[in-house]
Amino acid sequence: MDHLPNDPAILVSSVDMLLRDDEYDTLDALCYAFDREPEEVKEYLLGEGYVWSEQQKQFRPVGFDA
């Protein structure tokens, strides 16, 4: 993957897959590898209905982030 996708559903899926498969240890490391700011990604996805769960290390739909 050369860059992180712009489509919110595909972005969530890609980030979650890369973290789950241990390609990257943290969201910060993943974002910096793709020249993106973690806070920018979190804010963009929050606006699309996804919230970052540090405990689960994945983006979750708002309301299912417990």
H/E element sequence? HHHEE
Number of strands: 2
Counting helices, strands and paired strands, the structural category is: alpha+beta
Distance between the termini: 30 Å
The 3D shape can be described as: globular
Radius of gyration: 11 Å
Low-confidence stretches: none
Helix proportion range: 40-55%
The main pleated sheet reads as: 2 strands, antiparallel
Task: Give the mean pLDDT.
Answer: 92
Widest beta sheet: strand line-up: 1-2
Description of the molecule:
With 66 residues, this protein is an alpha+beta fold. It has a domain of 45 residues. 45% of the residues lie in helices and 12% in strands. Strands 1-2 form a two-stranded antiparallel sheet. The longest helix has 13 residues. It is globular and about 30 Å long. The model has no long low-confidence stretch (mean pLDDT 92).
Mind sketching the topology for me?
Layout: H1 8-20, H2 27-33, H3 38-47, E1 50-53, E2 58-61
Antiparallel strand pairs: 1-2
Please give a handful of descriptors for the protein shown.
66 residues, alpha+beta, two-stranded antiparallel ribbon, globular
Question: TL;DR?
Answer:
This protein has 66 residues and is of the alpha+beta class. Helix content is 45%, strand content 12%.
